[in-house]
């Protein structure tokens, strides 16, 4: 009887996972760090679906992997609670509210003039402050040593001089190689305790999923060259962005901008305005993909872009579960990730200049606006959504007052 009760406490229904994730998706403002706090309170403290050790190990795994860490943690908890279907509905519930909201924003903007509207310019200036704060926070964590800082600066210079999605991929790969050797001795030893994440996935299945992740990353661009389909091109671009983002949701900005703006799917101003709008809704920042998909191709674009950008997370999380205990004790693996994280700081720094700064800041008044927004974010610790709303209203009032 005791064993049955423990099993009942450990496993639940897909329905309860979906309802809980949807509630979190409607209320989780504040970015990935805040999301992890919400998850801890809901899944560990209140519902007790997993213990603190397992949660800590799951967070560590998802921070090691590319992609949106908070969404990946939700996927992992859904998997442990209700199997693969639980993983799917955990992602869907957490993602759906912000994806729908941003899709509706894109629809609304399609029926209103972009021009030089003051409210839109306010959104662009908010994006400058939000990304500047992200660069600052990431640099304090991932570019503190001499070699890490050097990698970050060289990465910024490289992607500014040779713009494009593939140059960013090359920079991240090179930084991983440099980190694997140059940063190995600086690695902090991890605990030798047994990882708390139960396997749930067989090793053979894990290998298959990881191989599928790699095959898609290589094969999709090759097929794209032969298949004349804008939706296929959209899937390829967003899959690659989801597969190569290290360091948090903000890093998806330069990768996506390099993919979608040169294609002519949306303009740089539309891109940055949508990015700012993404700060004002709950849920993962990766649902910015839904905004771009809607603005470029309508509802089909929403489905394709959202599925493509999150698919790598599913493959990596489920595929890595059986190997996490081994991965977390590989110094060279950790050092390579440290090099990649330093590189993404530089890539985001380059994006802060172009296209964000060049599109938004046109004079001293704009600079003063950005500094004020940065003050609210970095010093007064306002949530990003509040700063975006203030910038939206402030930009409109500034235009109205002339």
From TrEMBL:
Span-the-membrane segments of this chain are: 88-111, 117-136, 143-160, 166-183, 204-226, 238-256, 277-297, 303-324, 336-356, 368-401
UniProt keyword Ubl conjugation, yes or no: no
Q: Would you name any one GO CC term?
A: plasma membrane
Instruction: Give the UniProt subcellular location, in the record's own words.
Output: Cell membrane
Which Pfam families does this entry report, sorted A to Z?
A: Chromate_transp
Membrane topology listed for this record:
Multi-pass membrane protein
Main location group: membrane
Name the UniProt key words of this record, in alphabetical order: Cell membrane, Membrane, Transmembrane, Transmembrane helix
Molecular functions per Gene Ontology:
chromate transmembrane transporter activity
Q: Which family does it belong to?
A: Belongs to the chromate ion transporter (CHR) (TC 2.A.51) family.
Protein name per Swiss-Prot or TrEMBL: Chromate transporter
* Organism this protein belongs to: Geobacillus kaustophilus GBlys
């Amino acid at each position: 009887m005791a064993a049955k009760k423990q099993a009942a406490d450990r496993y639940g229904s897909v329905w309860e996972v979906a309802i809980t994730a949807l509630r979190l998706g409607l209320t989780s403002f504040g970015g990935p760090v805040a999301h992890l706090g919400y998850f801890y309170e809901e899944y560990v403290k209140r519902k007790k679906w997993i213990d603190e050790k397992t949660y800590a190990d799951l967070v560590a795994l998802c921070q090691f992997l590319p992609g949106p860490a908070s969404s990946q943690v939700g996927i992992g908890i859904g998997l442990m609670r209700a199997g693969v279907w639980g993983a799917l509905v955990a992602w869907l519930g957490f993602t759906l509210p912000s994806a729908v909201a941003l899709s509706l924003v894109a629809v609304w903007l399609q029926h209103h003039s972009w021009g030089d509207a003051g409210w839109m310019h306010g959104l662009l200036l908010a994006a400058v402050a939000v990304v500047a704060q992200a660069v600052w926070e990431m640099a304090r964590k991932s570019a503190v040593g001499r070699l890490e800082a050097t990698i970050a600066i060289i990465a910024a210079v490289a992607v500014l001089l040779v713009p494009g999605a593939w140059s960013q991929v090359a920079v991240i790969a090179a930084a991983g190689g440099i980190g694997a050797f140059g940063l190995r001795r600086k690695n902090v030893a991890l605990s030798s305790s047994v990882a708390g994440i139960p396997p749930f996935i067989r090793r053979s299945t894990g290998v298959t999923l990881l191989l599928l992740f790699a095959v898609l990353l290589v094969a999709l661009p090759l097929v794209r060259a032969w298949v004349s389909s804008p939706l296929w091109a959209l899937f390829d671009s967003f899959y690659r962005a989801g597969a190569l983002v290290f360091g948090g949701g903000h890093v998806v900005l330069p990768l996506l901008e390099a993919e979608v703006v040169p294609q002519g799917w949306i303009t740089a101003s539309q891109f940055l305005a949508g990015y700012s709008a993404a700060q004002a809704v709950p849920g993962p920042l990766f649902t910015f993909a839904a905004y771009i998909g809607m603005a470029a191709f309508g509802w089909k674009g929403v489905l394709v872009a959202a599925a493509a950008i999150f698919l790598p997370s599913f493959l990596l999380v489920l595929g890595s579960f059986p190997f996490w205990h081994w991965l977390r004790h590989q110094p060279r693996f950790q050092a390579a990730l440290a090099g990649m994280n330093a590189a993404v700081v530089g890539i985001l720094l380059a994006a802060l200049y172009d296209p964000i700064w060049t599109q938004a800041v046109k004079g001293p008044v704009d600079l003063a606006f950005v500094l004020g927004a940065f003050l609210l974010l970095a010093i007064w610790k306002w949530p990003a959504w509040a700063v975006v709303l203030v910038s939206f209203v402030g930009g409109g009032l500034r235009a109205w007052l002339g």
